[in-house]
Design brief:
With 218 residues, this protein is α/β, with parallel strands linked by helices. Helix content is 25%, strand content 28%. The strands form two sheets. A seven-stranded mixed β-sheet has the order 5-4-3-6-7-9-8, sandwiched between helices.
């Protein structure tokens, strides 16, 4: 059995101290049963879910005060689930999803580190058929999800499957060149787009090159 190494962190995010486990670094890999390979996840991309990226930290900080009243929330491509952990502290109705076969275990482990409630998780790829039992969501959030050419189309179609007809999408886009394509596709689905500016600079993320995109359909 291949062993992987971890790091443990405590981050002050807003008024919350969030404890979480990540992979030690992006050199870790363990796929003895071939689950990730069967899903098309290469050894090079395998560890990417298990570290916190700048966009993920920004999303988590946004969630400390974002309007969540009576909303059913889904974190897309959750990775280790940092934004979901913050929302769980706020007792939000939050669920999470990721394609990676280890993401659900990381999410629940991190929830337990914070003595939090169980966070519903379902593993799916964006192109998979809709899981009827999951239902639909009022607010869908994600960070740094557009890093390949196929992602704008795949993510927009995923959102179409799981969003309420009157819904809001919040995406911290990592500046990898596919944001405009995604914006166009969301607008073609009837969403109004806006940007949240200046937020990353408020906590020393001035090196962040992406954008915080908000899509709304009324």
């Amino acid at each position: 059995m291949t062993s992987i190494r971890y790091r443990y962190h405590t981050a002050e995010i807003g008024k919350y101290d969030i404890h979480y486990r990540t992979l030690r670094d992006r050199q870790q890999f363990a796929d003895d049963l071939g689950e990730a390979e069967a899903l098309g996840i290469s050894s090079a991309s395998w560890p990417l879910f298990g570290v916190v990226w700048p966009a993920g930290e920004i999303l988590a900080r946004l969630m400390t005060s974002y309007d969540i009243d009576s909303k059913r929330i889904l974190e897309m491509g959750c990775g280790i689930g940092l934004a979901s952990l913050v929302l769980n502290e706020r007792l939000a109705d939050v669920s999470a999803t990721d394609v990676h076969p280890c993401a659900g275990d990381f999410l629940q482990y991190n929830s337990q580190l914070n003595s939090g409630r169980h966070i519903p998780f379902f593993r799916t790829a964006w192109e998979d058929s809709r899981i009827e039992a999951i239902g639909i969501f009022d607010l869908l959030i994600g960070s740094d999800l557009l890093y390949e050419q196929v992602h704008p189309k795949a993510l927009s179609l995923f959102i179409k499957k799981y969003s309420n007809p009157r819904s809001e999408i919040l995406l911290v886009e990592g500046g990898r060149g596919y944001g405009n394509n995604f914006r166009y596709r969301m607008q073609s689905m009837g969403f109004l787009v806006s940007e949240i500016e200046g937020f990353s600079r408020s906590f020393d993320k001035g090196d962040f090159k992406g954008k915080i995109l908000r899509f709304r359909k009324y």
